[in-house]
Amino acid sequence: MFEQNIVKLINHNSKAVILEFSENNKEKAWLQVKHQEKYSNHASHWNAFLNLLSQNILSEWLKEEFDLSQPLAWSSPDIWEFVNGTSFSLGDKRIVIIKSEAIDNQEFCVPQEWVDIPKFVADYYLAVQIIPDELSLCIWGFTTHLDLKNQGEYDAFEHTYTLLRDDLVQDINAFLVSLEVCPQQREAIPTLPKTSANEAENLIKQLSQASAYSPRLDIDFLKWAALLENDEWRQKLYEHRLIPTKAAINLSSWLENIFDTGWQTLEELFANSQVNWAFRNERLSKKPDPNTLKQIKNLIEQIKNTLDEGQRQIAAERLGEIGYQDKQIIDALIYLIQETKNEETRWTAAESLWMIDPGNSTVGVKLGSNLGMQLAGNPLALIVGFLEKSDGKVAVLVQVHVMEGQKYLPPGCRMTVLDETGNIFSEIVARESDRAIQNKFSAKRGERFSVKISLGDSCIAKDFSL
């Protein structure tokens, strides 16, 4: 009995091929990729699992359709560390399988690696939908290399070619016939520019850094393609990414004043900077005059007695500007951080708290790391702060700042935040005259995320856990 999602696929295309598999098939594929530590992160593990499961099911189907006496020779599984898809050959025809978990298939998206790397190019590209929970796989359409190159929409940012569902041939029987009677369906593509062994070694070193995502978008595509096409270089990169590296930075330990090497308070980080940073406030070293004390009292009352978030933000910001390190002020700001449901109010209060009392970790911590000149010779700092919320979640702030010697961030400097599966959920690009870029989001305890800072082919990545 087909489950609800497969029924939707059948309704979209009555000529699709539906293949069912068992829990044992699924478990076998999972054990092969998960327990042998063949992949470096959760995203690549899951990608490999779905591709291997699809490959196993399709092998049986193809064996029956073509009465094959020998097992098919599939592409090397190390490719799943980097990109979605798998391939095999039948006679002089090469076929690429692109799997997807999407339920409503409106388009067919093929990674550029399978289209523009001469060694990876195929004649036919099969669109496969796999739903592990429903133990079902659907072959819902196919296209050719000729059509992908001539009709596909190229995305220069994601490095993909895309065809709409209606542009695919949806009769899978036509695919089976084409394999036997049609000539090769490949568009002529140029060979890749030559890459020296020295450049390849440098790229492998750069891309071997542990991350929660594939490094396929971190460098120019032609350089990336040269690495993948060379079996020796691809295998070396794959092996280097499996070498155990330092665990993700544990933000929760910061609450216990256990800091990772290279992370420090913002006062320490910018101690020698000549830039007038907003968080480098001069705290009052002596008791304020009576008028200022009266103003402080009114601001504290405004924080506690008004429900207007705008007024609370103004009051919190002003207390930070006054900069008097007083227990009543600190308590009022902590109260506001814990009580408010407004994220802007929460972070305004936190910034003022850390201006007045930089080491206060009662409800959160904010530290910075000097990245030096790692990003194409630009002096940068990564700043991460987090606050505990009353609903049990954590409010997170990530910032990229310029360091001394440079007035603005280089235009095009990109900060990308990725979840633990490697999916991008935020990306900010520096404009002209930006001194900093930042992003705020909420997460749950135990979750992981990564921050990637990139400029051209240069990239720095840091992994964090909460």
From TrEMBL:
Belongs to the CpcE/RpcE/PecE family. Gene3D superfamilies: Leucine-rich Repeat Variant. This is DUF1822 family protein. One of its GO terms (molecular function) is lyase activity. Signal peptide: none annotated. It holds the Pfam family DUF1822. It comes from the Bacteria. One of its GO terms (cellular component) is phycobilisome. Keywords: Antenna complex, Lyase, Phycobilisome.
